[in-house]
Amino acid sequence: MRKLLLIGYGNVGKAFRNLLYKWEDDLKAEVAGVITRRGLMIGNSPEFRKDADASIVEAIDKLKPDVLIDMASANYRDGEPSLSAYLHAFEMGADVITTNKAPLAIRYSEIMEKAKKEGRRIGFQGTVMSGTPSVNLYKVLPLAKVKKIRGILNGTTNFILTEMYKGRDFSEALNEAKRLGYAEEDPTIDLNGFDAGAKLTILANLMLCRRVKIGEFPIKGIENLKLDDVEGAKKRGSKVKLIAYADEKEIAVRPMEIDVNDPLFSIDGVENSLEITNEIQRVSIRGPGAGPETAAYAAISDLFIINGTK
Ligand SMILES: NC(=O)c1ccc[n+]([C@@H]2O[C@H](COP(=O)([O-])OP(=O)(O)OC[C@H]3O[C@@H](n4cnc5c(N)ncnc54)[C@H](OP(=O)(O)O)[C@@H]3O)[C@@H](O)[C@H]2O)c1
C-alpha cells in the first residue's frame, strides 16, 4: 500500500478520504496521516484528532509518505507552507498531488524543475476545473503543439452572468450565488477575475510553455459590469462571459461579448468549459468546475495516473 500524507482536511479532504475508502483496493493507497492548521494526526480516522504539533516538513520526515496530497486553503501571498512542503517531498522521494492552485500559480517553473531533478511526479488536475479533465486532458493530446487555449474557468462569475442575462442585477445575482453556496462569503477573488487568472496561469505554463506568474498579465473581472451591458449584448444576440485566453503572444482574463455560434455561448450557470486548439485539431470539454467531491475525484484521478504509470 502507498502511504499518503494529506495536507488539509476540509470539504475536499473529507470527500477525498471517502472516495479513497471506496476505491482503496484499486488505488492501493492508504492515509498515513493528516496535517492541518490544528496539528498532525497520525493514522486514519474520519474525525480529525491531533496527535502532535508539527510543521508539514516535519510531518514528511516523520511519516515518509509516498504521496503528499495538498488540499489546503490557497495562500496567494507566497504559496506557503505548501510550496516548501512540495520541494521537500520531492527530495524525500515522494510524489505530490494538489487541488491547491496557489503554489503553481506563483512558482510553476520552480516546482516543475525540482520534481524533474528529483525524478518525481506532480498531479494537479484539481487546480483547474476540479474533476473535469483539463490538465489531464492535455496529457492525452501528446506531441501536437498547442496554439491557443480559451475557456470559462470560474463557476461563480459564470453563474452571476447567467442570472444577469435572465434580467437580475449584479447584487441580486451575487446574493443568489451566495444563497446556493456557489459564492464564498468574501467572493472578491472570483469577481475580480483572480481565480480564473490563477487557473489560466497554470494552463498557460503547462500547455503553451508560457513562463508566466499570476499578476504578470491583464486580468479584468465582472465586478463593475452593469445589467445594461449584459442586456445590450443580449439585444445583439450575444452573451457576456468571463473569458480566459492564452496563445503564444497574448494572455488575459476579461469579460467579452460572444455570439451564438461560439461554443462557449451555451456554457451557463456554474458549468466550466475549456477549448484547446493544437496544430491538429480543436478539442473542447465542459463540466463542473467546483464542488468538494469533484475536486476530490480530481486528486483520485491523479493518484490513479501516478500509480498506473510508474
Ligand atoms: N471546494 C471546492 O469546490 C474546490 C474545488 C477545487 C479546488 N479547491 C481547492 O482545494 C483546497 C481545499 O478546499 P476546501 O474547500 O476543502 O477548503 P476548506 O474546507 O476551507 O479546508 C481547508 C483545509 O486546509 C487546511 N489548511 C489551511 N491552511 C493550512 C496550513 N497553513 N497548513 C495546513 N493546513 C492548512 C485547513 O485546516 P484547519 O482544518 O485546521 O482549518 C482545512 O483543513 C483549496 O485550495 C481550494 O481552493 C476546492
What does this structure look like?
- The chain is globular.
- The strands form 2 sheets. Strands 3-2-1-4-5-6 form a 6-stranded mixed β-sheet, sandwiched between helices.
- Helix 1 (11-22) packs across helix 12, helix 5 (102-118) runs parallel beside helix 10 (194-208) and helix 7 crosses helix 8 (170-179).
- The protein has helices at residues 11-22, 24-27, 56-63, 82-91, 102-118, 135-139, 155-165, 170-179, 188-191, 194-208, 227-235, 292-308, and strands at residues 2-7, 29-36, 39-42, 67-70, 95-98, 122-123, 146-152, 238-247, 251-259, 271-278, 282-288.
- With 310 residues, it is α/β, with parallel strands linked by helices.
- The protein has 2 domains: 2-131 and 292-308, Rossmann fold, CATH 3.40.50; 138-288, Dihydrodipicolinate Reductase, domain 2.
- It has 12 helices and 11 strands.
- The structure holds NADP nicotinamide-adenine-dinucleotide phosphate.
- NADP nicotinamide-adenine-dinucleotide phosphate (NAP) binds at residues 7-13, 35-38, 71-74, 81, 99-100, 126, 130, 290-292, 295.
